[in-house]
Amino acid sequence: MSHFIKVCGVTNLSDLKFVSLLSTDAVGFNLYDKSKRYIDLSNTKKLVAHVPEHLDIILIFVNHPKEYVSRCLKEIPKAIPQFHGDETKEFCESFEVDFIKAIRINSDTDLEKINQDYKSAKMLIFDSYDEKEYGGTGKTFDFGLLEDKISIPFLVAGGIDESNFHDALSLENCIGIDVCSSVEEMPGVKNHSKVKNLVEKVRSFNV
Asked: I want to staple 85 with a disulfide (CB 3.0 to 4.6 A). Which of 2, 62, 112, 152 is the partner?
């Protein structure tokens, strides 16, 4: 199968153009103003104008007001919202568009409830749990927490790199990876060789 590759936390045109030339599937723009990779709506719109047709545009929201999400989706109509906070099923579904729900996972996460609550999601993203950060920590989590427990297609995030991507992709119903900090020089600036090497390795990996 061809695994889904999302490169998140894109903040500048140089990185966007490079990622667009690789065999990737989606780029993510972080609209959460407490993120180290925050980019406001105005600058996001400028970058989105350079995203080629074949790439999905993902907008990351973290507990944003409904009005703000609606405004962003109106101004960037091709975008898919990714809800990375504590949003409810009802909130995620209220925009009547495809959506992605990100889950910060630990041993207390009720995966059966997630299977029920978010079965209308386009996909899920599982990320490492951090009390203070909503993603982008570069920390990995125990992939065994997900083994044979998720019925919805999902991506694995959280420190995914050349050393562990194959373990993530071997999980049942894992359709790809979401990378950010593991392929950066510094927050918001990608290391192009790391991105390229990881993408090539994923594309040559078969489960």
From this structure: 62
For 78, the 3-state DSSP assignment is coil
pTM to 2 decimals? 0.94
Query: Tell me: the pLDDT tens digits for 143-196?
Result: 999 989 999 999 999 999 999 999 999 999 999 999 999 999 999 999 999 999
User: Count of alpha carbons within 13 Å of 193, Cβ hemisphere only?
Assistant: 1
Report DSSP letters for 130-199, one per residue. -SS-SS-------GGGGTTT--S-EEE-SS--TTTHHHHHTSTTEEEEEESGGGEEETTEE-HHHHHHHH
- Domain locations along the chain: 4-203
- For residue 115, which of 86, 146, 75, 74 has the smallest C-alpha distance? 146
Q: Residue 35 is encoded by which pair of tokens? A: 């993120």
Q: Does domain 4-203 bear CATH number 3.90.1640.30?
A: no
**43 vs 97: CA distance, rounded Å:** 23
- In the three-class reduction of DSSP (H, G, I as helix; E, B as strand; rest coil), residue 43 is classed as helix
